[in-house]
Specification:
With 549 residues, the chain is mainly beta. The chain is built from three helices and 43 strands. It has a domain at 432-546: Immunoglobulin-like (Sandwich), CATH 2.60.40.10. It starts with a strand and ends with a strand. The structure holds 2-acetamido-2-deoxy-beta-D-glucopyranose (5 copies). Residues 452-545 form the Galactose oxidase-like Early set domain.
């Protein structure tokens, strides 16, 4: 059960998952006035463009770009093979004298360089159950590579390139962790119409043809089915097509290089995580790629489609964003609302192909009435165009990085220079006026830290809550951190967990007994961010691992 939705065309399914609880979307405390969030500038130079980003369970963020970009913003004193990088002309231009991947330490607000042996440009990745990032594919010598990053928290760890390779070259493929055996499915890529599983369990393991990728390939549009949208449903079907969904309405396409985005809305314990709903937003108009090459930038798509992919009534329900948008990211906030951030209004993906940056994020509240779901948030001054990305942090902020619509690092005399500044978008719920409502000092018992929590098992969470939001539930969410690139947050999933009891102990301390997700179909084994949400105000999150006990 995975689902892939590809482009503006047909979709196929493979599906899976989710858990938990109802949170109300809104804080009733104040009107929407002033609930627009803030921007922080964290670093002026991340060294490398944050084309691909992922938050590890050690609270660091892995970022990487393409090794072929030449001079990055992080010059090395020595190459990774030990030889010195001098200031002679050759070395100044030599790509191996620059970092192309970094680890960002959130609490120290610093980056350190990581070693890449081959090019992971436009690749995919998924976290395994032990928190190791399994990265797949890239460009040229990197196209069949599998790399591991095992987070360590002591600044010692680095990329490890596996000797076992992929069966097919994967450039612009997507990947998704599966419920069983810690395996990842990797789907598609440029001129590749197959999927395969990693890590390989036997040397002879091959890829499988996927007719859907042939059917949806748009040659004149640059593919328009690259970085296929992949979501794991909760029904347990795998490796066969069980449903064909209707085509999403709207003129234009949704997948790379049209680069709309797709998100699976939070799964809820109240239906046993059986209702799975996907939302696809934005993208490019028909002919956007050809037009951009001639210097004409067509307006992007405003439409979003929502579809419940489980059950028998699979229909797209359409609605409209405030403005057209492409090249954006869609992230699930701990409140269960969707943040739509980064991107542009005109053109499509690819070098120099987009114009008119989308500077204001949108907040999408899935449970509000149609027509009332979008709110415009505070604008940034920094354009985040092609090759930008974003990811949620455990403290509730959203890290925003990258942007480089050029094959090299270019800072002057172009419409959109290479962007190395690192920002955080700080949602309104972190403002000091909500401080008394923000649950804090959370401790997870019977899991967290060293021990994983078994599927379906009860576990205890203790936290401090000064004021309970009136008439609002206290909810609990578990969030699988995604790997974000090219407008798609792979493996992103949120479960609203069942709370079996909630007791005040006095002095503001509260003890909740929660139920872990029932199975890996709902939540593949791995690290999740657990958050307490008090009527729309989330706590800082703590890492918890779900696994077979
Ligand atoms: C970034 O650079 C600007 C301009 O030089 C400076 O004012 C600012 O303090 C710097 N910010 C950070 C986070 O380093
Ligand atoms: C290290 O890499 C550089 C650049 O590719 C190469 O010129 C040099 O010979 C290498 N040195 C060693 C010790 O392998
Ligand atoms: C996690 O599993 C992967 C794949 O089996 C392995 O390479 C890696 O070393 C493991 N990481 C940890 C932290 O045990
Ligand atoms: C898009 O940007 C161009 C300049 O690049 C400007 O002339 C045009 O008005 C902008 N369009 C919109 C809809 O913002
Ligand atoms: C919560 O933790 C913070 C930081 O560790 C501490 O300063 C504060 O006193 C704690 N709050 C309570 C209510 O114990």
């Amino acid at each position: 059960m995975l689902i892939f939705l590809s482009c503006s065309k047909i979709m196929i399914t493979i599906l899976f998952f989710l858990v938990c609880f109802e949170f109300s979307n809104g804080v009733n405390v104040r009107s929407s006035e002033g609930r627009k969030g803030q921007w922080q500038l964290l670093l002026n130079n991340t060294g490398v463009v944050g084309m691909h980003v992922a938050l590890t369970y050690k609270d660091t963020v892995i970022m990487f770009d393409q090794t072929g970009a030449g001079q990055s913003g992080y010059r090395l004193r020595r190459r990774f093979n030990g030889s010195r990088c001098t200031i002679n002309h050759h070395d100044l231009l030599d790509s191996t004298c620059y970092a192309h991947s970094v680890e960002y330490d959130i609490s120290a607000n610093k980056v350190r360089p990581l070693r890449l042996d081959t090019d992971p440009w436009c690749s995919s990745a998924s976290f395994l159950s032990n928190g190791t990032l399994l990265q797949t594919g890239g460009f040229e010598k990197g196209a069949k590579r599998v790399r591991f990053y095992r987070p360590c928290g002591n600044h010692q760890c680095d990329w490890i390139q596996s000797k076992k390779t992929l069966s097919d070259e994967r450039w612009y493929a997507s990947s998704q962790i599966l419920p069983e055996h810690n395996r990842v499915v990797v789907v598609g890529g440029r001129r590749v119409f197959t999927y395969e599983f990693v890590p390989k369990t036997s040397p002879g393991e091959k890829s499988f043809d996927l007719p859907f990728l042939h059917q949806t390939n748009d040659r004149d549009g640059g593919g328009n089915n690259l970085y296929p949208f992949l979501h794991l449903s909760s029904d347990g079907n795998l490796n066969r097509v069980i449903k064909t969904f209707p085509r999403i309405p709207g003129e234009g396409s949704r997948n790379y290089p049209s680069s709309g985005s797709s998100v699976m809305l939070p799964l809820d314990h109240r239906d046993n995580f059986q209702k799975v709903e996907v939302m696809v937003c934005g993208g490019s108009s028909i002919g956007a790629l050809e037009a951009a090459r001639k210097g004409r930038f067509l307006e992007g798509l405003r439409s979003c489609g929502r579809m419940v992919i489980t059950g028998n009534n699979n229909k797209w329900e359409m609605e409209y964003m405030p403005k057209p948008r492409l090249l954006h990211d869609m992230l699930i906030l701990p409140t269960g609302n969707i943040l739509i951030i980064n991107g542009a209004k005109h053109g499509c993906a690819g070098y120099e192909n987009a114009r008119n940056a989308s500077l204001e994020p949108y907040l999408y509240s899935p449970n509000k009435k149609l027509g009332k779901r979008f709110t415009m948030l505070k604008s940034t001054k920094i354009a985040r165009m092609y090759h930008s990305s974003a990811t949620l942090l455990s403290d509730g902020r959203v890290l925003v990085a990258g942007g480089n619509p050029h094959g090299r690092y270019i800072f002057h005399n172009v419409a959109y220079p290479t962007e190395l500044r690192l920002q955080a978008f700080v949602p309104h719920y972190m403002e000091s006026r909500y401080h008394n409502w923000r649950p804090s000092n959370m401790t997870i018992y019977g899991g967290g830290g060293r021990h994983a929590i078994g599927y379906g098992k009860e576990f205890r969470v203790e936290f401090f809550l000064e004021k309970r939001m009136q008439n609002n539930e206290v909810g609990f969410s578990a969030y699988a951190p995604p790997f974000t690139t090219h407008s798609f947050a792979m493996n992103q999933r949120m479960l609203k967990l069942r709370c079996k009891s909630l007791d005040r102990k006095g002095g503001g301390w509260v003890v909740a007994v929660l139920e872990a997700p029932p199975s890996p179909n709902v939540a593949p084994s791995g690290y999740y961010l657990l958050t307490v949400v008090n009527g729309g105000i989330p706590s800082m999150s703590q890492w918890v691992q779900f696994a077979h006990a």
